[in-house]
Every structure is written in structure tokens, then in C-alpha cells.
Amino acid sequence: MVDKAARKPRLGGAFANVFVSNLATNLGDGVARTAAPLLAVRLTTDPLLISGIAALALLPWLFFAIPAGILVDRIDRRVALGLANGVRAVLAVALVTLAATGSLTIWWLYLVIFVYGACETVYDGAIRAMIPSIVAKPGLPSANSRIEAGELILQNFLAAPFTSLLFAVAVVIPLGVNVGVYALAVILALLLPKVASGKQFTDVSTEPRTKWYRQFVDGYRFIVANRMLRTLWFFSTFVGLCFSAATAGFVLFLFQRDGLPQPLFGVFMLSGAIGGILGSVAASWFKARWGAGLTMAIMNLVSCLALILIGAIPTIWAAAIGFFFTSAAVLIWNVLVMSLRQSIIPGRMLGRVHGTWRTLLWGTMPLGSVIGGFLGRVDLALPFLLGGAASTVVGILFFRFLMTLPNPEDVDNGDRPSTELSPTGLIIED
Fold it and tell me: What is the pLDDT of residue 6?
């Protein structure tokens, strides 16, 4: 029996506004992420060049995540969202023009993806930093679960099959949709309530105002000073490297080894979407019964073993089952690790610490993608086998550490509760 204190808090109207704005962006992201590999396989069949798509999508995190975090901590976070989506709307126009005129090459696609990724560093930092300003700590897992579930539903259930099927008719149709979607997301971001700006943390902070260029190391200093965060950071980075190596050539693996028809690529992605949605629903359930630490330790191993399954049994059914379990386990991991970080990091530093975290975590993933591309030239199943095996071994070695991770609501970062920051009833405890 779960007692009353463990019941989920209501998330409030401010979160609902953020959630709807994020859904609009997720639709555009889903079209873009499905279109990129489909465009790539029309332009080249080289596994290394195709793995470059995944590498360039993440490479901006190495260069721009920390500057983006500083920006998120210095300006209104609603403006940061609008700025990121405004540039992506312009990129969507450019991609439509190149495709319509027959001028698109793999190198133009690389450029568009790289700039798109740079904008995502700003958007991701802003949306993640917004959540703790409008949701109390006990509600963070539930809020992050809904954010993750919304992303999966829009990107995989709607955008992925929509994009894949329309590609068979005309490439420019799904690409053109993105222009309007990102423009709408800009408007919705600017209409978010004031509490989403993050300014309340700056107002209550006693941190001295420093030059922006001196803030590049703030996030790093905060992470390395906390032994738990520091260990989790390096662990997550290694596992992320293994996953990026394993999945960089996934689309080519499905087409060439498993015989998946290209128009059904988006339909196949539904297996991961279903797993992820179930994971988002189950994240709070597992946390309430096992605790965040044990849940994260188990889900990490499940996701790694599923990679081995995909490579060991190269059939479409094994790929779908492995993708289902990987997506479910990774979603639960993401919800809990994000909630834990949001509870540990003071609100005034969320952008900088998040940017520093992603600089190493996502900044090293392009290296994993390139490694996966070279391994894929030997055998398309090899990246899954080696990436899954390496991450499984590390998951076993760090299992005890992961078990000790606390629940988000048990951490005190010094911030006032959201109920005090917003006395208008945005957060109502049951």
C-alpha cells in the first residue's frame, strides 16, 4: 500500500503550458530526426558517411552546450526557447529549398544537421531548467515522465510514420511541415507564464554576478565537487559512448541485414515508442517500490542486454523486441537521472551544470558513432555486440553504486520549494 505522501502531486497549470509548448517542438523534432537518416540513405550507402549523421547531430554538444547553459541562466528561459525554435524554422526552409531544387548533397545535410544540433543545446537546456521552477521535487519524476512520453508519442507515433510514408510521395512535404511547426512553437514559448522564466532563482540567489566567460567552469566545478554526481557523470558518459557506437548505423542494419522496407521504417520505430511510453508510465511505479537507485541500476542492465539481443539475432523481430526493451529501460533511466540532477543542482545553476554534463556525455557520442561506423564496415551487427557487451560489464561493476542513489525528494539543494516561489496555487499537494 502506497501511503498518501507517496502519491503524485498535481503538476499545475504552468506545467501544462510548458508541456503543450514542448509538444509542438517535439512534432518538428520527430519529422527532422526521421527525415535525416532517410535523406542520408538516398544520398549515400556508405556506413561511415551515414554514421556521420548521428555524429553531427550530437557534435554541437561538445562545442555549444556550456555557452548555451550560460545563456539559459542569464536570459529569460522563454526567450531561449523561442530563439532556438526560430532558427530551426529557418533551417527547415533551407532544407525544403535544397530538396525541391535537387541541390541537396550529403555535405549540405551535414551542415543543416550541425546547426540544428547547436539550436537544440539551447532548447534542451532551457526546457530542462524550466521544470524545477514550476514543479515541486516530489513531482519531478512525474513531470519528466510526461515530458518524455510526449516526446515519444509525437516523434514516433505521429511524426515517424507520417514522415516515412510521405517520403514515398514527395520529400518536400514532411520537410515543409516543419516550417509551420517550429513557427508555432516559437509563439507558444513566448506565451508561457512568467514563472517559467527562471528569474525567481536569480532574484533569491546570493551568488555574485560574474563575467559570462568566467562562468564556463561553474558547471564543471559543481559536478566534480559532488562525488555522487561526478561518478554518475563519468558512468553515463561511457554507457552513452557504447550506445552511440551500437546504434549509429541502425537504419542501415535494418534495411540491409533485417530486410526492412524503407517506407516501413517509421512503423518499425513504433516498437521503441511503445516501449518508451510504457517506461514513462512505469518510472514512478518502479521508483515508489524499489527506490530510484535500484530502479536505475536494473534498467541500465536491461537496456545494455537488449543491444546484444539485436546484434546476436539479426532478424526484424529480434530488432523490434530489443528496441522495445532498450527504449523502455532508457526512458526510465532518463526520467530518474534527470529528476535527481534537477533536485541536486540549484535553480540558478541549472543551465550551466546541465550544459557541462551534456558537453561530456553527448559531446563524446560522435566518437562512438564514428567507431560504430568503422565497426559496421566489418559487420553491421558488430557495433551492437561490442557496444552492448562493454556497457553491460560496466553496468555490473557500478551496480552497487547506482543502488545507493537517493530519491529526488530526499535531496536538499537550498532552493525554496516551488510552492513558496509561486503562491498562486501552481503546485497543490494531494
Answer: 44
DSSP string, 220-286: HHHHHHSHHHHHHHHHHHHHHHHHHHHHTTHHHIIIIIS---GGGHHHHHHHHHHHHHHHHHHHHHH
Domain-located, residue 428: no
**DSSP per-residue codes, 375-428:** HHHH-TTHHHHHHHHHHHHHHHHTHHHHHTPPPGGG---SPPPHHHH-TTTSSB
User: Would you call 76 exposed, middle or buried from its count of C-beta atoms within 10 A (0-12, 13-18, 19+)?
Assistant: middle
Please give the grid coordinates belonging to residue 400: 552497487
Measured CA to CA, the distance from residue 13 to residue 131 in angstroms comes to 12
Domain count, the chain: 1
pLDDT at residue 212, rounded to an integer: 56
- Tell me whether residue 1 is in a domain: no
267 to 63, 155, 160: CA distances (angstroms): 34, 12, 7
Return the CATH number at 20: 1.20.1250.20
Please report the pLDDT score of residue 333 as a whole number. 95
- What DSSP designation does 169 have? T
**Which grid cell sits at 105?**
548533397
Query: What is the CB neighbour count within 10 angstroms for residue 138?
Result: 21
Positions of the chain with pLDDT under 70: 1-12, 156, 160, 164, 166-171, 200-214, 266, 414-430
DSSP 170: -
pLDDT at 426: 33
